[in-house]
Amino acid sequence: MRMYSRSNKRKKGTESNIPNILAFTLIRNFLIDRDYEDMRREYFIKNLSTSQVNQAMKDLKWLFKTYKGLDAVTIEDSKGKLTKFTL
Predict the structure, then answer these.
(1) What is the DSSP letter of 70?
(2) Which residues sit opposite 75 in a β-bridge?
(3) C-alpha angle with apex 80: 49 to 7, nearest 5 degrees?
């Protein structure tokens, strides 16, 4: 899996290979961590139950296996920091 990150202060970002477990952990933390609650609200994502988070992660894993090169998740915060996951 590849992760692309770009700071709001730079025009050029960095792209790197990361293990799938790290990417899925970051996505899962985004879905459940209270620190990201305001950002989730910006994306119209409500607080999810454990079963909803598990289903979302299963769906993401299926997407990654089925569609190679898919730009699956792009997260941009209000300050302009961008994080994108591509398989």
Answers:
(1) -
(2) 83
(3) 105
